[in-house]
Here is the input.
Amino acid sequence: MEINIAVTRQELGRSAARQGAELIRKAIQDKGSANIILATGASQFEMLQVLVKEDINWSVVSAFHLDEYIGLPETHPASFRRYLKERFADPVNPGSFHYINGEVTPYLECLRLGNIIRQHPIDVAFVGIGENGHLAFNDPPADFETGDAYITVNLDEACRRQQMGEGWFRTLEDVPKQAISMTIKQILKSKAIICTVPDLRKAEAVRRTVEDPVSPWIPASVLRGHWAA
Here is the structure.
């Protein structure tokens, strides 16, 4: 496994965006369209800034996102729908963007999105890793077994503290305790996965991801099976 070490957040984001863009262009060349997954949060700022400027026919790209808080309105600054509309969908106008709506019945929303994503095999997934090692909102111990594409999850305190620490919420009590998340198995179905993890605060999570045994207690460690495939 080859690991490229970027010196700055900007270089890491630029490298991730350009590698992902090349894979998107290849998918479009091979089959006329592309399906992608986008992560959110502070770790994806630089990557998205570059990705939206890439020479891609976005009109044939369908996009999904990884997770969304339950009960949080789209107008809230921490809404991932809002984040992706402002930083991705509005700048590039993709063919379609299948947002997770956390303001409707979670079970029905999971079914709806699951039916859609089964018709859109993912070419490229852009993901990050949480301070607690989570992948999407699959906090430890993550469910490695469910075959559902999306599930309702409880957010642990470490995850909620990260969201507050990044400035999305004023207090811990403001952070929702539940979310809809794309599952581990669904993420791993992606043909390619671009994982961008800047910030020293996540260094220990990255170390455990690549060095410790693969385990639901380190959800992102499951990516090693995808790298080896």
Summary: Residues 1-6 have pLDDT under 50 and may be disordered. Residues 15-228 form a domain with the Rossmann fold fold (CATH 3.40.50.1360).
